[in-house]
Amino acid sequence: MAINRQKLKLLYLMRMLEEETDAERGLTMAQIIGKLEALGISAERKSIYRDIEALREFGVDVRTYQRAPVEYAVEHRAFAFAELQLLVDAVQSSRFLTQRKSDALVEGVKQLASRRQRALLDKRVHVEGRIKMQNESVFGSVDRIQEAIALKRRISFVYFKYDAAKRKALQHNGERYIETPVRLVYAEGYYYLVVFNEKHDDFANYRVDRMDRIEVLDEPAIKNERIAT
What we know:
The chain is of the alpha+beta class. It has 3 domains: 5-74, Arc Repressor Mutant, subunit A, CATH 1.10.10; 81-121, no CATH class; 138-220, SH3 type barrels (Roll). It contains 7 helices and 9 strands, in the order αβααββααααββββββ. The chain has helices spanning 9-20, 29-38, 45-58, 81-92, 99-110, 115-121, 138-151; strands at 27-28, 62-65, 71-74, 153-162, 168-170, 177-187, 190-197, 202-207, 211-220. Strands 4, 5, 6, 7, 8 and 9 form a 6-stranded antiparallel beta sheet that branches. A 3-stranded antiparallel beta sheet has the order 1-3-2. Strand 4 (153-162) and strand 5 form a beta hairpin. The longest helix has 14 residues, at 45-58. It starts with 8 loop residues before the first helix and ends in a 9-residue tail after the last strand.
């Protein structure tokens, strides 16, 4: 069934303002009308004024700038441009991330900015010592560990280190570790899991990128008052 494009006008207007405008650059009424017409939507000034008021009532921060000519723009967003720059810098400077993962995260951050701001955020930082071969499954491992902590469940996993030939060498004769996860810590470019080992009545930590085949067990974590919450 064909959709009446006039009914989509408000949605297209909102997307247009969010993607193409910011505090530095807005759209004139003539530009808005022209862009809508290019989408097959006819519009008059009065109807667009009403739509802009509807967006403001909805909570979209559409500002009117008394320039020559008058421009309309979305000024305040979830993150200020300086905050987005900080996020991009933090992602791109992380040694922990592969270049592919870094690029993907930066693209996600850029979606929070206007189109003009995205171009300004599109920079490449060279990071010495970036872990090129980091297994990106570590992010899935972090998710499973966080799930176990939230559910107060124990986890099992195999753990490995690399031998002189850079091959995986399973620890503990390849047997699965069964531990109570306590906290995830990010330090020196790696995620570490702090666990409480009931057998030894003590804490230990494991590098998450060296943990493999992690499973969240149905077995509840044994309570110990020394375990941080």
